[in-house]
Amino acid sequence: MTLMLIYDLSLPTLETLLQEWDEPAYRAKQIWQGLYHHLYSSPEQFTNLPKSLREKMTQNLAFSAFKVKTYLDSSDGFTRKTLFELPDGNLIEAVLMRYGDPADDPQMATSATNRRGAKNRRTLCISTQAGCAMGCVFCATGQLGYKRNLSSGEIVAQVMYYAQMLKQQDEVVSNIVFMGMGEPFHNYDNTMGAIDRLNDADGYKFGARRLTISTVGLAPQIRRFADEGRQVNLAISLHAADDDERLAIMPVNKRYKIDDVIAACKYYIEKTHRRVTFEWALISGVNDSPEVAKKLATRLKGLLCHVNAIPLNPTQGYSGEATDRQRAAQFKETLEAAGIPCTIRMRRGIDIAAGCGQLAGANS
Ligand code: SAH
Ligand code: SF4
User: Fold this and answer.
1) Domain 67-363, CATH among 3.20.20.70, 3.40.50.620, 1.20.120.140, 3.40.50.150
2) Residues 267, 264, 218, 321: is their CA dihedral positive or negative?
C-alpha cells in the first residue's frame, strides 16, 4: 500500500481523516502547526501528540515525498541544486539561491530586508512537473519532454525540504519562484493547491507577494489566474517580439500568439493592478539586437511591466550562445530609452547546471 503524502492533505481533509480515527478535531491544527510552523519531518517529533496518534500517523501517512538522490553546491557556495527521486522513479530538481551582497543582486536594492527578518535573501526555485510538455528548444527540461504532473504535496515538499535544512542554520526561506522543471499553468490546480497551502495563515504563512509564478504564456490560465486574485507575482517567458521568431524557439506560440499573451497580461494587470515581468533569455544573434529591443518596446508600450533579461544558459540540446555583457547592456539601454524598465539578471549556479532552463533531472 502506498501511503498518503501528508503534504497532499488540506486542513479540512486532515480534519476528516482525524475524525475517522476518532481523534478530536483540534488535533488537525496541532499536526498542521508541527508540519508547517515547527517544520517537523517525522511523526516522532510530534511529542505534543499522544503516542497512539503518532503511531497512526506512521502507519497511514508518508512524511517524505522523495529521496535525495544527490546534491551539488556551486563553486561560489551560493547555490545548491538537489536532485530528488520520486517513488515512481521520476527525477525532479529544486534549487536554493543565496543572495547577500547587494552589488551582486540588483533586486536587493528594492527588496531590502525581507519580512521574515533575514538580512539576506534565500530564494527557492521549485519544480511543478517532472519534465515539461512545452518543448522550448533552449531549455533542458523542454528537451527532456513531459513525464508527469507533480501533486500539490510534492510541490510543497520541495519547499519543506529546504525550509527544514535552512532552519538548522537559523535561516528562513525568503522567496519562492516556480521556475524549476515544468510549466506551472499546465499543472494549474496542483500548483495553486501548493501555493494556497504555503500561504495558509494556519500553516506555513508564506506571503503571496514573495511567490512568483513563471509561465510560458498559456493565455487562458493567465486570465483564470487574474480572476482568482491571488497576490502572487507573475512572470511571462516571452523571448521574442515577433511571432515567427518566437515559434522557432517556443512551439507554444503556435497555440498562443504574442498578441494573445499580451492581451491576457493586460487583463491580468487591469484586474490585479500588479506589474508583470517579461523574461527574456538573451541569445546571441537571435533575440539580442537593438532592433529586437525596439520592437519589444513597441509591443509592451503602456503595460505595467518590466523585462528581466538573462544571458542564455548553456544546455546540451541547443547550440545557441549567450549574449555578451556589452550587448546585453545595449539591449537594456535600448529598451529603457523606449520607456520599458529592464534588469539584466546575474547568471547563477552555471557550473552545476542549476541556472534557468538547465534543470533536466540528470546527475549533471
Ligand atoms: N515553464 C515556466 C517556468 C520554468 S522555466 C516558463 O517557461 O516560464 C524558468 C525560466 O527559465 C523561463 O523564463 C524560461 O524561459 C527560462 N529558460 C529556459 N531555458 C533557459 C536557458 N537555457 N537560459 C536562460 N533561461 C532559460
Ligand atoms: Fe517548459 Fe518553461 Fe522549459 Fe519552456 S522554458 S520547456 S515551458 S520549463
Assistant:
1) 3.20.20.70
2) negative
